[in-house]
Amino acid sequence: MINRFLLNKIVTQCFNNKVILLLGARQVGKTTLLKILVEKLKVETKWLNADEADVNKELAAANTSTALMQIIGSETKLVIIDEAQQIENIGLKLKLLHDTKPDLQIIATGSSSFDLVNRTSEPLTGRKRTFYLYPISYSELVDTTNKLEVRRTLNTRLIYGSYPEVINNPGKEKNILIELAQSYLYKDILRLEGIRKSGHLEKLLQALAFQVGNEISYHELSRTVGNIDSSTVEKYLDLLEKTYVIYKLPAFSRNMRSEIKKGKKYFFYDNGIRNVLISNYAPTELRSDKGALWENYLLSERMKYNHYEENVPNTYFWRTHDQAEIDYIEDLNGVLNAFEFKWKVGKIRFPESFLNAYPNNQTQVINHDNFESFVGIA
Q1: Check: CATH 3.40.50.300 for 6-132?
Q2: What is the pLDDT of residues 43-53, one digit of tens each?
Q3: Dist. CA 120–CA 312, nearest whole Å
Q4: Cβ-contact 254, 353 below 8 angstroms
Q5: Closest-CA residue to 201 (of 238, 163, 162, 251)
Q6: Is the CB of residue 163 less than 8 Å from the CB of residue 270?
Q7: Which residue in 246, 283, 252, 281 sits closest to 266, CA to CA?
Q8: DSSP codes of every residue in 142-185
Q9: Where are the domains of the chain?
Q10: What are the angstrom distances between the C-alpha of 15 and each of 103, 105, 169, 277?
Q11: Global pTM?
Q12: How many other C-beta atoms lie within 10 A of the C-beta of residue 377?
């Protein structure tokens, strides 16, 4: 059993008169985490899975506090509504439950933030606490085992990623990733009105997978995918972000005319999902894209670390029109932390134009030898 850092954070927030939202992609371990939480809390619990048609129908029809409490039960102290974004008017229902029985701890999970967050934002104003669960982090693996053992599997994580089922089934990673991609990757997006087929989404994600670490253009992506325009590409990318498949890194600019101001890069939350989209499972030593794999892995691990530690920097990449570039920048409390990612150890000169324009900065090259501090390992 892999120790999940969010577990204790959520335990401490229970029974504090807040609805807890637990968000994250399908299959990252939300249900497993909550089963352990139930064992820890040892209170009367009602578990409702909105993926089940009969549960969904019953909750959708319950439009009063009385009807909802009949489903929940008067003795229940903790109610968990799994994949709550499936339920119509879920925000109002959670508000009714919370206001009717303040001592009831409500936990709602969701695999698509465009549904659950949007539908609960107004009804639950001041009444909720939101957590995000990601694929298993490097730090969580170290906490469960030890640094030496986890370092030995680093190349495997670069290729197959860090979904719980992938990590727990060595030797079966490829088949598990294929099943994840085919069964879950588009499940929530395809429920939306007007999106009937996954073909365009697949082509779009494949194009992004081949361009990890590079700036992208909506127009160029529309031409690559074919039969969709730039605005549709932008819409699909937004939906893919809100289902925790990809995330965007914008360009940083403040002072210099030569800076790229509206650039954007997209990265994948998990290396395994990226690699299954391009059907490439070759080991790192045989790959021409190891630099992109390394950058994608480090950024996703840094995101996990920042979230679990409740750090909230603004994050960017930086580039100028004359091709000076920095892989990653965190802006925290007015200090710019600039990072370059290199698989091999070696000296790197940060662009003088950046150092002169932004003197209040710190710079570091992250490589195979020193990356652990970057992802939260002392």
Answers
A1: yes
A2: 999 999 999 99
A3: 22
A4: no
A5: 238
A6: yes
A7: 246
A8: HHHS-HHHHHHTHHHHHHH---HHHHTSTT-HHHHHHHHHHHTT
A9: 6-132, 138-374
A10: 7, 6, 36, 42
A11: 0.92
A12: 17
